[in-house]
Specification:
The chain is about 40% helix and about 15% strand. It is α/β, with parallel strands linked by helices. The protein has one domain: NADP-dependent oxidoreductase domain (TIM Barrel), CATH 3.20.20. It has an eight-stranded parallel beta sheet with strand order 9-8-7-6-5-4-3-10. α1 runs parallel beside α11, α5 packs parallel to α6 and α9 crosses α10. The two termini are about 25 Å apart. Belongs to the aldo/keto reductase family. Aldo/keto reductase 2 subfamily. InterPro entries: AKR (IPR020471), AKR_Detox_Biosynth (IPR050523), NAD(P)_OxRdtase_dom_sf (IPR036812), NADP_OxRdtase_dom (IPR023210). Keywords: Oxidoreductase. This is NADP-dependent oxidoreductase domain-containing protein. It comes from Patella caerulea.
Length: about 375
């Protein structure tokens, strides 16, 4: 058996063990894709998957909309040459992938059932370990969605269900309705989370902590920002990753995501980068490794989703998984410099409860370290 080089966590309140770094495959595939960014061809994608497995990684995340199914097909062509039960495979449903069919979108029973069949075919498997709502659907009753997910679990097409990109009240409604209807609970929340994006600590992650839901951060390096490769006042090149594409395209009014202009003008981001650089230099690590390690040591996090476009990026990121830790003082320093403005009413609640015996301040917010 190959030497394992990564650490493992339980996936939510289950007995499934997953590597604490999950390989995200949004970069796998070619042709029109996410934000029209160029992706990895199949040969390179398979080399990345092979190397990820050599590191001991066992958790792979994709979605039906990545390169319009192309990512799932790339993963499926690799998977059919592997021992299927060694890997925890996750995919998602929501996005309108067939523009010729008005019902090929959202979280209706019809679309979910059709989508899982197509995903299973592309992935060359008869089940996925984790099937996730890619977003909240305001047009479909959540009861219909949850009953459909539960039926898919009962018939064996999916083993567990999760969600992504939802608010705190939406996640609580999912939890409560699953419990009320005696359905299988959702086990994960995949959310945008990093040193530069911490607002989910105020609501969503407290729902996770109270209900045993594992957090799966996506964009843990904020589109490459936290890797330290971008410099203040120097617009990234078009080919220089996601933020380079954003910097080039935001002037056209085509970008709805956080912009390079806002990033360049955000003093908090540059303060975070300065602290990351200092800690990285003192530990002989890269800034990206320190940023990933901070997430790994947050107590709500089950696995951090990394996206890479070459083997160098993969090896650098995977080295954050095990063998070293940030100290309590380093975690606290990163917590302090990255602390977002606390909104009302959370600021009022925290202020009035501060100093009380056994007061409830969410551990994820104050920065517990996971050994």
């Amino acid at each position: 058996m190959a030497e394992l080089k990564v650490d493992y966590n339980y996936l939510g309140r289950t007995g499934l063990q997953v590597s604490n770094l999950c390989l995200g495959t949004m970069t796998f595939g070619q042709g029109p894709g996410a934000d029209d960014l160029p992706g990895c061809n199949e040969e390179l994608s398979h080399r990345i998957l092979d190397r990820y497995v050599e590191w001991g990684g066992n958790f792979i995340d994709t979605a039906d909309c990545y390169y319009n199914g192309g990512s799932e097909s790339v993963v499926g062509n690799w998977l059919k040459k592997q021992q299927r039960d060694k890997y925890i495979l996750a995919t998602k449903v929501f996005v309108w992938t067939d523009k010729s069919n008005i019902n090929s979108q959202g979280l209706t029973r019809r679309h979910i059932v059709e989508s899982i069949e197509k995903s299973l075919e592309r992935l060359n498997t008869d089940y996925v370990d984790l099937y996730q709502m890619h977003s909240w659907d305001y047009t479909t009753p959540i009861r219909e969605t949850l009953l459909t997910f539960n039926d898919l679990i009962r018939c064996g097409k999916i083993r567990h269900a999760g969600c992504s990109n939802v608010t705190g009240w939406q996640l609580q409604q999912i939890v409560d309705l699953n419990r009320e209807l005696d359905l299988n609970p959702f086990i994960t929340l995949q959310q945008h989370y990093s040193l530069a994006s911490r607002t989910d600590e105020f609501e969503s992650f407290n729902v996770c902590k109270l209900n045993g839901i594992g957090v799966l951060p996506w964009s843990p390096l904020k589109g490459g920002t936290l890797s330290g490769k971008y410099k203040r006042g120097e617009k990234p090149d078009l080919q220089d990753g996601r933020l380079g594409w954003v910097a080039e395209n935001e002037k056209r009014g085509t970008v709805s995501r956080p912009s390079w202009i806002k990033t360049d003008e955000d003093q908090r981001v540059w303060s975070i980068l300065a602290t990351l650089e200092k800690i990285a230099n003192s530990k002989g690590k890269s800034m990206a490794q320190v940023a990933l390690r901070w997430l790994i040591q947050r107590d709500v996090v089950a696995s951090v989703i990394i996206g890479v476009k070459n083997l160098e990026q993969l090896n650098n990121n995977m080295a954050a998984s095990s063998g070293w830790k940030l100290t309590k003082s380093e975690m606290e320093e990163l917590n302090e410099v990255s602390m977002p403005e606390i909104p009302y009413p959370q600021n009022q609640i925290f202020r009035l409860n501060h100093g009380r015996k056994n007061n409830f301040l969410p551990d994820c917010f104050v920065g517990d370290i996971v050994d």
